[in-house]
Amino acid sequence: MGKTIIPIGPYHPLQEEPEFFTLTVEGETVVDIDVRIGYNHRGIEKLSEMKTFENSTFVVERICGICSTSHPFAYTRAVEDIFPMEVSMRSKYIRTIIAEGERLHSHLLWLGLAGHFLGYNTVYMWAWKLREEILDVMEILSGNRNNYAMFKPGGVRRDIRSEDIPICISKIDSIVPTLVMLKKAVLDDPVLHARLKGVGIMSYQDAIDFSALGPTSRASGVARDVRKDSPYGAYQEMEWDMIVTKNGDVFDKAVVRILEMFETIKILKYCLNNLPDGEIDAKIKDVPPGEGIGHIEAPRGETFHYVKSDGTNRPMRHKVRAPTFMNFPTYKATVKGQTISDATIILAAIDPCYCCTERIAVKDDKGRMLYNGQDLIRLSREKTEKIRQRMGGK
Amino acid sequence: MIRQELLLDFTSRFHADILDLEDKSNTRVYVNITPESIVRIGNYLFRNVGARFNIATATDMPPKIEILYHFIVEDINLLISLRVFLDREKPEIESLAKEIEAFNWIEREMSELLGITFIGHPDPRRLLLSDNWPEGVCPLRQDYEEWDITADRTRGV
Amino acid sequence: MSLKLKALLKSPWVFHLSTGSCNNCDIETLDCLTPRFDIERFGMLLVGSIKHADVLLVSGSCNRMSVERMKELFEQVPKPCLVVAIGTCAGSRGIFKDSYNCPVPLDKIIPVDVYIPGCPPKPEAIIAGAVKLIEKVGSTL
Description:
The complex is a heterotrimer of chains A (about 400), B (about 160) and C (about 140).
Chain A: E1 3-8, E2 20-26, E3 29-36, H1 44-50, H2 53-61, H3 70-82, H4 89-118, H5 121-142, E4 151-152, E5 155-156, H6 164-187, H7 190-196, H8 204-209, H9 214-218, H10 226-229, H11 250-273, E6 290-298, E7 301-309, E8 315-321, H12 323-327, H13 331-334, H14 340-349, E9 362-363, E10 369-371, H15 373-390
Antiparallel strand pairs in A: 1-2, 2-3, 4-5, 6-7, 7-8, 9-10
Helix pairs in contact in A: 1-2, 2-3, 4-5, 4-11, 4-14, 5-6, 6-11, 7-15, 14-15
Chain B: H1 3-13, E1 18-23, E2 28-33, H2 38-49, E3 52-61, E4 64-73, E5 78-87, E6 92-94, H3 104-114, E7 117-119
Parallel strand pairs in B: 2-5, 6-7
Antiparallel strand pairs in B: 1-2, 3-4, 4-5
Chain C: H1 2-10, E1 13-18, H2 24-31, E2 45-46, E3 55-59, H3 64-76, E4 82-86, H4 87-92, E5 114-116, H5 123-140
Parallel strand pairs in C: 1-2, 1-3, 3-4, 4-5
C-alpha cells in the first residue's frame, strides 16, 4: 500500500499554540511522524538576560499561560540556589498553594480537551466550568486569573489574607462532588475503556530513554515526581500519594491526572488550613556570582531552570526547559503503528502545551486534499461512537 | 546507593577524564570533564547509574563555550552537572543523541542557538528558528547583533 | 460590501490564530465558549476552518515562523474580514519587543480593527471587545 503524507497544522482553532506535524500513513496506520516546532519561539532566554533578576520573573511567567506559576517557581528557586538560601516557611506555603491551584486547573483543562477530542463534549463543558471555580480562587489569592505575579526571588510578592482562606476552601470544596462524578463518568465508562485502553502505549523503557516527565512517565510505571524526589516548597509537610500506573496507554495517563487532582485538593486544603505565620520576603539584595539550578514539578512534569550570575544585577545566562520539551519527543514511540483516528488523542495525552489536532489536512501523494482537521476529530469521534454501538449503548 | 559511594565510584572510574569536582551543596555536584569523554561518562550516568537526563545548557563565555549536562539521580536527590569547555571558534563535541533519545532535541537547539556542532547527530535539522534565518547567526552568542534590517523595535500602536 | 458586512455582524464566526503567544489569551478565548461566559449566546461561533471565518482573532507576538503562515491565512479569509488583536503581545508585543524572533508588530503586517489589551484579557474583556467591534462596524454602515 502506498504511503501518504499528512501535514498537520500549524494552525487549529481549539488548541493554543501552532505546531506542524507530518504524519506518514499507510492506509489507516501511522508509520512515521515528524514535527516542526518553532512557531512559538520568542527568544525568552535572550530577553531574560536583558532584564534584572527581579524583572525576569515576569518574563518567565509569560513563557506559558497555563504554567505561569511553574516557571517563576523554578526560576526563583534557581536564583536562590546561587546563594544558596532558603525562603521562609510562610512563603513556601504560599508558593505551594499557588502551584497546586495551577495544577488543578491545568489538569481540568486537559480533561476537558481530551473529552472534546473523543466526542464527549459534556466532559469538556463540565471540566471547564469547574476550572472557573479554581480560577476564582486564584483571582482571590493573587488578583488575576492567570499570570499571578506572586513570585520573586527570596519569597513571594503578596501575602494571603486570612479572611480569604475560608472563601477559598469553600470554593474548592464545592467542586469536589462534581469532580467525583466526573471521575466516575470517565473511569467507569465502558466505552472509554474500550476506546482508550491499549492505545498509544509508552513502555517503561521508552519512558526512561526519552527521560519522560510528570504524568506521562508516571502512567508508564516510572515513579518520578520532583515533589517527592527532591522536596521543595511545603510538600514534605503533609501526607499525599504519588499516583503511578503501569500500562502507559492513554487511559492510564487520564487516570493519573484525574486521581492527581484529588491529591492536589488534599495538599491545597492542608496548606490553606495550616498556613504558618512569618515573613514572606527575604529582601535579597545582590546576587553573588555563581550558578543555580531550580527544578520543580509543573502540571506536565519537571520544569528546569538554570541561572548563571556574574555578579551584576542581570542573569548572564538563563536556560529554561519546559516539561513538554522532554515529553513531546515520545510521540515517536507512541504514535507509530496506531491508526489516524487515535493520533489526535495520543498526541493530546501527553498534555502538550499544544496539541495540534485540528486543522489537520490529509493529502495523498499528489497533494490532493483528503481530510482536514475537523475530519480527523470526526474520525476520532466516529470511532468512539462505533465502540459505543457495538457495546449496545444508545 | 548513597551519595558518597556513588561519587567515589564515579571519580575512581573516570579519574583520567575528570579535571575538577566541585561539591557545591548536598544536592548539587559540578564535575569538570574533558570533552572527549562526554559520551562515555554520559552513557555511564544514564545507563549504569540510572540517572535521568535533565537537560544540557550551553553558555557563550568568550573565549570558550561551556556546556553543562545535568543529570539527576532521583533516589538520592543528587544533581550531577557535567561541565565541558569547547573552543569558541570551532565548537565541536560528540553527540549523545545517537544512543540516547532524550538528547535529540536539546542538541538540535544548542546547535542552532549557539552554533555548536554535534558530531554524529542523527537528525541535525533546525528546531526553533525559522527557515529563513541566516546560516551561522547564533542568537545566544554574546556578540549577536540584529541582522534583520526590516525589524521594528518601536512600541507601535 | 456593506451588505456583506451587515450580514456578517448578525453572527460573526471567528477563527482563532496564535502567532507565538503564551497561550493565555488563547485559553481565555476558549473560556468564552464555556458555560460561564458562553459567547455563543450572541451568535459567535469558533470555527475550525479559516474559510468559514468572518472575524480573525489574533494573539501572540508574531514570531518569524508564524508570521509567514499568518499572511497565507489572511489571504484565504473570505473578505470582508475583521481582525481583532487579543492581548498585549498582539497589540504592541509587550515585553517581547526586543526579541530577536519577533521582528514586526501585528498591525504593521495586517490591518487590525480592534485591540483588546490585557495580559491576558479576561473573558469579559474579550466579549466587550467583540461587542465594541460590532458597534464600530455597525456605525459605519
